[in-house]
Amino acid sequence: MTDTPAIKIRDLDFAWPQSPPLLDIAGFDLARGEKLFLRGPSGSGKSTLLGLVAGVLEPQSGTIEVLGENMTGLAGSKRDRLRADRMGVIFQMFNLVPYLSVVQNVMLPCRFSAARRKAAGDDLAGEARRLLARLGLSDEKLLARPVTDLSVGQQQRVAVARALIGGPQLLIADEPTSALDADARDRFIELLTEEASGSGAALLFVSHDGSLASHFDRSVDLAEINRARATA
Ligand SMILES: Nc1ncnc2c1ncn2[C@@H]1O[C@H](COP(=O)(O)OP(=O)(O)OP(=O)(O)O)[C@@H](O)[C@H]1O
């Protein structure tokens, strides 16, 4: 089954209520292990597309297959399960839980997914610490601090460790670099792409900042694949 794409989209149509068509995508594939940069200006529909891929949103028509499973045929609860079990998601604002410690934040996906918990091994906290250490966060004092006390760059690394725990084969990241200066941003993307390569995960990274494209295997402009915007 591993030759099925990480993401396969066919004849996708999506519009927000009382709004004109936003996405009309005839075909789009992300290969297993591929690292793709999807760019487009603000408001072009990148986050909406990620929401569809993550199964948080449903298209009006068309199919979205993720890691060989047809999301569009699934009930909401099954889409939630697929996302929890098989996707690592990094949000624009990281969505770290302020009242949990750094290590607890990283372990969080394993609370929602038995599959991720099993894949992460018996010593969950140890695995969280191992991932954090690989991302340069190993200082015990720092790990004990509330996650809100960390710098933006450190919070990003926590968000990456959380996305990676349990080895999901699809990582999706929604412009997680907008708060960083150019050097920190480049370091962050290098870290993310290295970690994706290390675990063999496919990576879909969206941003309006085209200068990031060189870090990825392939770069696609949303306007190239989206007929709704092309004719708007
Ligand atoms: N929950 C929502 N309800 C209605 N319309 C929405 C909703 N979320 C987004 N939209 C609209 O859909 C369009 C695309 O928004 P989206 O956030 O997907 O774009 P984006 O390319 O990710 O933008 P940005 O780079 O600013 O994050 C915008 O016109 C936006 O107003």
UniProtKB/TrEMBL annotation:
UniProt keywords, alphabetically: ATP-binding, Nucleotide-binding, Transport
Source organism, top-level taxon: Bacteria
Coiled-coil parts of chain: none
CDD domains recorded: ABC_MJ0796_LolCDE_FtsE
Transmembrane segments: none
GO function terms (MF aspect): ATP binding; ATP hydrolysis activity; transmembrane transporter activity
ABC transporter domain segment(s): 7-228
GO CC annotation, single: plasma membrane
Protein's UniProt name: ABC transporter ATP-binding protein
Organism in which the protein naturally occurs: Henriciella mobilis
